[in-house]
Specification:
Layout lengths: L10 H6 L3 H9 L3 E5 L2 E5 L12 E7 L5 H4 E2 L4 H6 L18 E2 L7 H5 L3 E8 L7 H10 L10 H8 L8 E4 L14 E4 L18 H10 L5 H19 L13 H14 L6 E6 L15 H19 L7 E6 L20 E7 L7 E2 L17 E2 H12 L4 H4 L15
Helix pairs in contact: 8-9, 10-11
Length: 419
């Protein structure tokens, strides 16, 4: 989990965001941690690397708890408008409307994907039991193994369920620390951006580099976890350097953290170096105050960034798009009623977007529970978020969903082809 800066007044969110040092301390308990420059690899035992990935899952975390009731508006439920007299999104401005739902107008860049059947929304998703603490909810969502004392994330278990074929098969982009979903015994590469992927004092593109030769001589045959870590780091750095040979189309993305992270992801995936699981973050969704109207304000800013970045990412992938599926997640949603500060407080149910390869899109999915207009009313959860993730995993990988989500029996969502 990466540290996220929020402009809201939620002290719990700011105080409990986990920084790079804390994350690495937790990872070190599970395996060796090798750091070269700003690239970090958490490692297990040595692995042989080989073929490119046949499919890719990109998990986009909307940190701070996005307001799903604003992103996908239940305009057919009159309680929505009664509960939000100042911040409700008018039905007339919604996009891709059906009888119950419509997309926020700031999501206009995503409408072509929706119309092409490449984007779907699953509403009333979330944790099986409400948890309004950012820190605890993030941990629970990303561990996805309630009751377990093992600190292993669901994406790390997914890496373990598939045969590793690349030192960069699991890749966290946009930070020097991996999210909790990647923490575990399987090797994971993290990078703030492609430009910072380096072995300090060495040139991964030059196999004759003296520093790299020294590292290979020292650790090349070591059976220790550190030896495995060094070898993985060297191989991963060299693999990611291949991505810099791909055209840089970052100018077509928003000049934001999310936009530039997704640009780096697309550039890396076009290099086809074996990446199969990717995480990126978008922060600042914790809008207790001044959430804004349908045309301006903090939510419009974030939603516009999200929509433009994902649309640019889809276009940038080119032929690789046929094997890339993107899914969004947030730790929880927001309350039904707006608060006295024209914002929304911590809630429960939310919306998840699924886009790209294998998606049965152009549809709103999930069971709508109806809304109540009381001070503490939540959007109830009718679809466990793990059912959405498990359907993506079952559709796009050969892994057992039982291994990835222990003890969980998924329900059919219908968002992915063949599921």
């Amino acid at each position: 989990m990466t540290a996220t800066t929020s402009s809201c007044s939620c002290d719990e969110y700011a105080a409990t965001s986990v920084g790079r040092r804390g994350l690495l301390r937790g990872a070190a308990l599970l395996g060796a941690v090798s750091t070269f420059g700003t690239t970090v690899v958490t490692t297990s035992q040595g692995t042989a690397w080989g073929a490119p990935a046949s499919s890719v899952i990109v998990v986009l975390s909307m940190r701070g708890a996005a307001d799903g009731l604003s992103l996908v508006v239940p305009h057919g439920d009159p309680t929505y408008y009664a509960a939000r007299p100042r911040i409700a999104v008018p039905a007339a401005s919604l996009l891709a409307k059906d009888a119950m739902f419509g997309l926020h107008p700031a999501l206009a860049p995503l409408v072509p994907l929706w119309n092409a059947g490449k984007l779907a929304a699953v509403h009333a998703t979330g944790l099986p039991v409400a948890n309004r603490s950012h820190f605890a909810a993030m941990e629970e969502v990303e561990d996805a193994d309630p009751g377990s004392s093992a600190r292993v994330g669901w994406l790390n278990r997914l890496l373990g369920a598939d045969a590793l074929t690349s030192p960069v098969q699991g890749l966290a982009v946009g930070s020097a620390a991996a999210p909790a979903s990647f923490v575990g015994t399987q090797p994971v590469m993290t990078m703030p951006d492609l430009a910072t992927v380096t072995v300090a004092g060495g040139d991964p593109a030059n196999p004759q580099d003296a520093r790299l030769r020294s590292l290979r001589t020292m650790w090349g045959s070591s059976a220790t976890a550190m030896g495995s870590g060094v070898r993985t780091s060297l191989a991963g750095s060299a693999a990611l350097k291949q991505a810099t040979a791909q055209p840089d189309r970052s100018a077509s993305y928003p000049a934001t953290g999310l936009g530039q992270a997704l640009s780096a992801v697309a550039r890396t995936l076009r290099a086809d170096i074996g990446v199969s699981l990717v995480t990126v973050d978008q922060g600042d969704w914790d809008m207790h105050t001044d959430q804004g109207t349908a045309t301006s304000g903090r939510l419009v800013t974030n939603a516009t960034d999200f929509a433009k970045a994902v649309a640019a990412f889809s276009a940038d992938l080119g032929p690789v798009a046929d094997k890339v599926t993107l899914v969004t997640i947030s730790e929880f949603g927001r309350r039904v009623a707006e608060n006295a500060n024209a914002g929304t407080d911590h809630g429960w149910g939310n919306v998840m977007f699924v886009a790209g390869a294998g998606v049965k899109g152009g549809r709103y999915l999930g069971t709508w529970p109806g809304l109540q207009n009381t001070l503490d009313a939540d959007l109830a959860v009718t679809t466990d978020y793990r059912s959405v993730l498990a359907e993506v995993v079952a559709s796009r990988t050969t892994a057992s969903t039982a291994a990835v989500f222990p003890g969980f029996r998924r329900e059919r969502v219908g968002v992915m082809q063949g599921q």
